[in-house]
Each structure stands twice: as C-alpha cells, then as structure tokens.
Amino acid sequence: MLKDKREGTQLAFKTFLGSDGTRYLVFRSLDGSFHVFTEVEAKQAARECGAAELANTRQMWESLWPTQT
Predict the structure, then answer these.
(1) CA distance 21 to 17
(2) Do 10 and 30 meet the contact criterion of CB atoms below 8 Å apart?
(3) Are strands 11-17 and 23-29 parallel, antiparallel or unpaired?
(4) pLDDT digit string, tens, across residues 21-56
C-alpha cells in the first residue's frame, strides 16, 4: 500500500550559529525532515574535491562545476 505524497515544493532554510562559531545552513523539507550543512572555506573545499591549484577560488570551482551532473 503506497501513501499519498504531500503536494507542494516547500523547502525552508535558516542559518544557525553554533556555540563554537560554526555557521550551519539547515534545510527543512515539506515532510518535516531536517538536513544540515556546515560552512567551510571554499578554496579548501575545492582542493578536497579535486580542483587544481588555480589563481583564485572562482576559477577552481569553475573547473570543477562541469564535472558534476
């Protein structure tokens, strides 16, 4: 027996600041589940995702962007 899905495209998000200074981006879906992301330094994240060391962060992410579907 399948349940009827809730209709709509609601996706709410808010940012929270942790006691250690970490900033969290929290998404709440229509069905009430929560998903949490933490802010990281963009250049370091690009390195960890396989970008070559380029002149700036934007170039590093632009080199990675087309590789993901």
Answers:
(1) 6
(2) yes
(3) antiparallel
(4) 999 999 998 888 999 999 889 999 999 999 999 999
User: What is the C-alpha separation between 15 and 17, in angstroms, rounded?
Assistant: 7
Q: How far apart are CA 27 and CA 37, in angstroms?
A: 8
Alpha carbon distance 14, 35 (integer Å): 11
Helices then strands, each counted (H, E), the chain: 2, 3
**Residue of 31, 38, 24 lying closest to 9 (CA atoms):** 31
Output the pTM of the full model. Answer: 0.60
CA 50/CA 34 separation, integer angstroms = 28
